[in-house]
Fold this protein.
Amino acid sequence: MLDPAELYRVEPDAPQLSEPVLVLALDGFVDAGAAARLAVDSLVATGPGQPVVRFDVDQLVDYRSRRPPLRFETDRWTSYSAPELEVVALTDSGGTGYLLLSGPEPDTQWERFAAAVEQLVRRLDVRLVVTMAGIPMAVPHTRPIGVTVHGTRSELTEGHDSLFAAADVPGSAVALTEYRLGQAGHAAMGFAVHVPHYLARAEYPQAARVLVDHLAVATGLYLSTEALTTAA
């Protein structure tokens, strides 16, 4: 494996947080109801985040599989929306700082990316990593929204019932990262909200609100869901 430290750059003026939570949500894998994306949008809507770490997306993104947009006006190219994979520092409504890693899921070098995240968890003294996702399920929208919870330690999932004994599912960079963090002894957990399968391709803010609520309970952060509640 190539040196994971050469995959990212820590900003020189990055804020120093005390044992922060790191929220991890990447685009590109299953996100039924756009639950994770809407949850991330809700988090960053509270104010501009301060950049902490920037990943070298040129090493991670397959531009031919998901082409970033360029704008053409009359006779020239006028702008380019480059993909960004970065960690930013945000603040909850109680004034507590936390970290958010979001952007495109790496198309390549998953092991190196996971190792890079593990390095950052140690370097930034992260106390807990939390992932978010939406998965399609054969459930109706008229019932309370369910959530599958997983974690690297049994105490992280206490109080949550599992619907599965065992299942083989397609891998993702986020899932592999959580797995490697557990092997390295770090606390990491994730929430996968259950979205009615017939709403999987639509925006379903109810599911995003459930993700943010679970994130708040698990981390002790004060996170507003007012906008998501209104949208729901």
